[in-house]
From TrEMBL:
Belongs to the AHA1 family. Residues 24-155 form the Activator of Hsp90 ATPase homologue 1/2-like C-terminal domain. This is Polyketide cyclase. It holds the Pfam family AHSA1. InterPro entries: ASHA1/2-like_C (IPR013538), START-like_dom_sf (IPR023393).
Amino acid sequence: MSENVVATPPVAHSTVSLARTYPVPPARVFAAFANEATKRRWSLELDGMHVDEFAMDFRVGGTETARFRVGNGPRVHTETVFQDIVPDTRVVFAYRMAMDGTPTSAALTTVQIAPAGDGAILTYTEQSAYFHQGHSAELAEEGCAVLLASLGDVLAAT
């Protein structure tokens, strides 16, 4: 008896950690994560992005849902659950991502915010599992860097 065996790509893992300093107090940086309109602005309203849905319930156990597309790329859907929130100091969340309905990755992210002179230093650490080839630590780091730059732009404009 012969069996048809389909090879499943192995899961790849990575940890990405980035630090950015912003010239605003920690409370302002934290508020950019806690306020739904501000979070949407810096995390989804970037050039070339079309947002279909964004909703956020910022509390431990609360969720964030986003559905969007970058240019003519695949439809992206993220589901986030907030695991830990310490005002002005820390946000920990777990999220999963799917593209065109296919799960692509899951991550645990820790955002730490601390005073740094007259501003704040944000340390963003993301531990990820990638389910499909084409998703990698390099792409995750690039995406995180774009988001943190956008956060800086929004903080500077407000």
